[in-house]
Amino acid sequence: MAKAMSGQKPVTPSPDGLAASVKAAQKQGLPPVHLWNPPFCGDLDIRIAKDGTWSYLGSPINRFELVRLFSSILKKEDGKYYLVTPVEKVGITVEDAPFIATDFEKNGEGEAQRLTFTTQVGDTAVAGPEHPIRIVLDTETDEPSPYVLVRANLEARIDRKSFYRLVEIGSHHDNWFGVWSDGQFFPLIASQALEG
């Protein structure tokens, strides 16, 4: 995306220009977005819906490769979400969490078990001290919304089927019902609430 010259109207960022910049900067693995602090170039009408669908100008982005590419340069700063490259930063809208944890794999048993979550864009994270699970209760319905930290300030909402599977393998510890992963216990609900 080109920056406006002095006296000219700013150029609106485009997904294609951003994708080209990312491909030019990207090497193996995830780009080091935490090291990039480019100037803010404006907002781009990209939205990540609560169900994890990415859209541009109201239309879904159906190319998985493009969504995966954009997800690799996602950054959260001061509660706002941006797509960043070494030379530009654009704001986007995220309705809930930027990722959906669509599945998890369980290895081991009890306190020694490890839960590895996979997101809709192919990221993986082992729940534990660096990737905690947290629960947010809806203030109106008391329905739990579970999340797992995937990478630097970016969470995945754990989908319903995966949450039910977590409940199936849960256990009680210190008056809480929850799950163990990577040596850490993550409370899901108070034991007393389950008994009631």
Question: What does this molecule look like?
Answer:
There is one protein chain. The protein is α+β, with helices and mostly antiparallel strands and 196 residues long. The chain is built from four helices and 15 strands. It has helices spanning 15-25, 64-71, 160-168, 191-195, and strands spanning 40-48, 54-56, 59-60, 74-77, 80-84, 89-94, 99-107, 114-119, 124-126, 133-137, 144-151, 154-158, 171-173, 176-181, 184-190. The strands form three sheets. Strands 3-2-1-6-5-4 form a six-stranded mixed beta sheet. A six-stranded mixed beta sheet has the order 9-8-7-12-11-10. β1 and β2 (54-56) form a beta hairpin.
Write the layout of secondary structure elements.
Elements: H1 15-25, E1 40-48, E2 54-56, E3 59-60, H2 64-71, E4 74-77, E5 80-84, E6 89-94, E7 99-107, E8 114-119, E9 124-126, E10 133-137, E11 144-151, E12 154-158, H3 160-168, E13 171-173, E14 176-181, E15 184-190, H4 191-195
Parallel strand pairs: 1-6, 7-12
Antiparallel strand pairs: 1-2, 2-3, 4-5, 5-6, 7-8, 8-9, 10-11, 11-12, 13-14, 14-15
Number of strands: 15
Query: Number of helix segments?
Result: 4
Residue-averaged pLDDT: 87
Helix and strand run: HEEEHEEEEEEEEEHEEEH
The end-to-end distance, rounded to whole angstroms, is 57 Å
In quaternary terms, these chains amount to single chain
How much beta, percentage-wise? 35-45%
Outline: elongated
What structural class do helix, strand and pairing data support? alpha+beta
Radius of gyration: 19 Å
Main sheet attributes: strand count, strand direction, barrel closure: 6 strands, mixed
Largest sheet: spatial strand order: 3-2-1-6-5-4
Low-confidence stretches: 1-11
The proportion of residues forming helix, as a percent range, comes to: 10-25%
